[in-house]
Amino acid sequence: xxxxxxxxxxxxxxxxxxxxxxxxxxxxxxxxxxxxxxxxxxxxxxxxxxxxxxxxxxxxxxxxxxxxxxxxxxxxxxxxxxxxxxxxxxxxxxxxxxxxxxxxxxxxxxxxxxxxxxxxxxxxxxxxxxxxxxxxxxxxxxxxxx
Amino acid sequence: xxxxxxxxxxxxxxxxxxxxxxxxxxxxxxxxxxxxxxxxxxxxxxxxxxxxxxxxxxxxxxxxxxxxxxxxxxxxxxxxxxxxxxxxxxxxxxxxxxxxxxxxxxxxxxxxxxxxxxxxxxxxxxxxxxxxxxxxxxxxxxxxxxxxxxxxxxxxxxxxxxxxxxxxxxxxxxxxxxxxxxxxxxxxxxxxxxxxxxxxxxxxx
Lengths: 146, 205
What we know:
The structure holds 2 protein chains of 2 kinds.
Chain A: H1 4-7, H2 10-13, H3 27-30, H4 40-45, H5 49-52, H6 54-64, E1 68-70, H7 71-78, H8 82-94, E2 98-105, E3 108-115, H9 117-139
Antiparallel strand pairs in A: 1-3, 2-3
Chain B: H1 3-15, H2 22-41, H3 47-76, E1 79-80, H4 85-104, H5 112-128, H6 138-149, H7 162-198
């Protein structure tokens, strides 16, 4: 497994040294190995980009609160244009996070969208990881100027 | 995406059916017309008569609600709501409790548990969505005032009018509540459109 020290830019990796233990000591001061403990920035780098994109996150959040919704509803509550919404929906469908169902209601074509089971799991995991990052960021202490 | 925008999306999606308030307003108008007409026309109004008038109001509100369903679907889109376990259990539980109360305590009028449930649910909605939908407190306030005005609450109204007056005031309270719900829906959708247009993401990302 790659370490974050390789993946993250230097500006981010040096912040690892600021992470403190339960006594408020920096990792470098305690002599603990720093490479095994992922920083919040590493968590951020590992976020699922399909879900993390703001418009797609809004779509998934909207669909998570209902059984299914149509294209017009999603366009209204996300404020996206038809083209952009359609493009994001295609990406989500390709990732098997949503299902697209085309039906006729009152002789009118309606496109219904719903979260797949995988989509619900991925979204739940995303929020869990997001909460973890927030928690980790709270525990980070600023580096004191010497 | 900022937290506020995401929170608005979640609120809109989870409360979309409830915020279609014109249906509530139409129901309120129908109740006011039916029960008001009964109070006006009946020589000696009774609590049972008020219940029949309330049932008659469903006939009045049905076409309006049918039309409004079509309006909301075309203007704001369609959404299929997923009821949780609690709402599914609520109706049968309510029927059992109301029937038991009416059987055990004959002095409680037949429609009184329904009024109590409407008052409690309205108060719960106001608290749950605080401060967005505080106007739902209008229903408990209206019912409380009607009860105090009736003989059962120590007021001057004929005790046989209690239920009719309660229905009338709650129906009247539903009209502004429904209109305010609809206005909140329109406002939230408008804000969502404005935010979306301002922060339109790149399709290629």
